[in-house]
């Protein structure tokens, strides 16, 4: 009887549901009930139809339903520099191309248009939460909030002036103001983003560590990205950068260390003992020939590893599903073990491990009752990718982001049948066209 059914906002019934927690589970013909932005039930579809009277019922006959993907590292607005400087090593890329271009072009409008372009791409590719480190973080946060996409906004801190701030004092002071503005936001969490050990000296790093602890913020930093970074640090300080950060008291579960391609045994022990988070960006590391993050060794040691795309100027996309495939393939090669970095493991890296790194495992990263309804569906009906024996292996090794069909954040739909519902792509393309003409002319 309809009267006995509980009214809910949304019921999503899918061919397969991968909750991620418990690990390794794939549920056939299950449904997720959503109310007031939260998951209130996950049960077999036959039971869901007896229990709920949904305002909307989405039936996904050939689809896999997964938690939304969490891109833990990027510089969204750099999407406007996609393809500007390719086939270069990190320092040439940064010093001779990217930093001069940032000095010329990055302002509020650049941050707004570049961020929206990156968000459109991320949503299209299954990302529901992104972490960002870039100039004008107030603008990035505002664009994400306006479009109701979740983000961790990392306040940049550098020793030198940029278009956003004049030096460490101003970066930190402006950053605290951004944190205050978004204190009550459901969508935005604000962290500190000291750029790298080679661009931030001890005093501002110490200040960031103290403030982060006081206010309960995370810290994200590029760390051990290249062999050159280690060699230069050894000659200048006599210490590997990770040990310098350990001496300064930065290593803790609140620290998110991005890249980590250069690790010795003691580095891995330090990361494990301190609960420091590692963010692996395999495609950026491959493209800049930076090195290889030893994901399997880190995970065996108990280190939490998640995934990021890095910016579109070094990747050159924001496709986290593609990044999962790369991480699995490279992870096996680096470990010399085909069983290492499995399909289920990379899905966990892009979901629940990221939620843990953000300090939000109770709210995000899996399909469990009580968590936010941040969900994606992948259509597996394409004849060219049949048959489907193991849906998670299929997701990682055989599908691509074009097959991401739906996404919801907070139970609100953002992508339906591959179409973005909240972003005006035509207007955005015009603005991006104007930027690209200006940037190309200056090159
Ligand atoms: C402090 S704002 C971010 C700053 O970082 C630059 N950047 C982008 N990608 C990387 C990378 O892989 N390693 C180091 N720095 C990077 C970006 O251009 C901004 O200047
Ligand atoms: Zn980066």
Automatic annotation (TrEMBL):
Binds 1 zinc ion per subunit. Its cofactor is Zn(2+). It comes from the Bacteria. InterPro entries: Amidohydro-rel (IPR006680), Deaminase_MtaD/DadD (IPR023512), Metal-dep_hydrolase_composite (IPR011059), Metal_Hydrolase (IPR032466), MTA/SAH_deaminase (IPR050287). Pfam families: Amidohydro_1 (PF01979). It is an enzyme of class 3 (hydrolase). Its EC number is 3.5.4.28, 3.5.4.31. Zn(2+) binds at residues 73, 75, 222, 310. Residues 65-413 form the Amidohydrolase-related domain. Belongs to the metallo-dependent hydrolases superfamily. ATZ/TRZ family. Belongs to the metallo-dependent hydrolases superfamily. MTA/SAH deaminase family. NCBIfam families: PRK09045.1 (NF006549). This is 5-methylthioadenosine/S-adenosylhomocysteine deaminase. It comes from Hydrocarboniclastica marina. The gene is mtaD.
